[in-house]
């Protein structure tokens, strides 16, 4: 958390895009007023305090279908490998 605080308080920040860094209430207190969006690069957004973002009028986004095709392709490839007894 502390390693992103200098970046989120920069007045030029208009969006924060994260994959696993927690964006909790304390972090949101440091976010500059120019920031309008916090986005998660993944299916979930458990690492983002949505309530605190709403209080600051910050939109929260995520990618609900991130990697779904790739995961399905990998699962089928593993089934083929198991069927062929490959390692």
From TrEMBL:
Residues 14-75 form the D-isomer specific 2-hydroxyacid dehydrogenase catalytic domain. The keyword Oxidoreductase applies. Keywords: NAD, Oxidoreductase. Signal peptide: none annotated. The keyword NAD applies. SUPFAM superfamilies: Formate/glycerate dehydrogenase catalytic domain-like (SSF52283). It comes from the Eukaryota. InterPro entries: D-iso_2-hydroxyacid_DH_PdxB, D-isomer_2_OHA_DH_cat_dom. GO terms for molecular function: NAD binding; oxidoreductase activity, acting on the CH-OH group of donors, NAD or NADP as acceptor. Belongs to the D-isomer specific 2-hydroxyacid dehydrogenase family. This is D-isomer specific 2-hydroxyacid dehydrogenase catalytic domain-containing protein. The lineage of its organism: Eukaryota, Metazoa, Spiralia, Gnathifera, Rotifera.
């Amino acid at each position: 958390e502390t390693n992103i605080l200098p970046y989120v308080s920069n007045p030029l920040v208009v969006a924060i895009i994260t994959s696993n860094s927690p964006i909790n209430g304390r972090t949101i207190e440091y976010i500059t007023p120019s920031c309008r969006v916090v986005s998660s690069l993944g299916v979930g957004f458990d690492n983002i305090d949505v309530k605190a973002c709403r209080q600051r009028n910050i939109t929260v986004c995520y990618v609900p279908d991130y990697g779904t095709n790739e995961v399905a392709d990998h699962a089928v490839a593993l089934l083929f490998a198991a069927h062929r007894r490959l390692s």
